[in-house]
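so my prof wants the structure for this chain in the tokens format not the other one, which i didnt know existed until like an hour ago. anyway here's the sequence
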Amino acid sequence: MNDEQLHQVDLFAGTHPNGQPVFERVPALATGQRNQYCLQQSPLFAIGAASGDVIELMVNNPGRFRVRERSGQLALRVLRRDGVAALAEELTPVVEKLGGRLDVESERALVYSVHVAVGFREIERLLDPLIQAAGASWSYGNVYNPETGEPLDWWESLLNP
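here's what i got, hopefully its the right format
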């Protein structure tokens, strides 16, 4: 794909207390299909998608999207009120050993992408002690339905074809 296909797509990330929608800008490659893009990193605030997923932006509903194809990546979101720089130095090599990568680093947040084949238990076993020791919190950005809290189970077809 050429550089002309690289875009910054605005994904719905929530609602501001004043009632206005909030969007998160995420780099993506156009797929050639109308309104469809392949995300180049996992979003921090936009829930439901991860790096490598192909999404379709909804017409007449700015920032809303539907995942058309899952990459198998899990979006791991780490938050720490007192800053994440020191935690990133410790956590990033652990995630890289799992074959994952750091997608987003801001003052108080990190976003990693790790393939689901690593396993939820393994990810949690490695992350939980480091996150707890740092006084931080973490969550999956694309595992649970944001309205119901139920698992999305998209990984079942990837792990058990």
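also thought this was worth mentioning. The first helix runs from residue 85 to 97.
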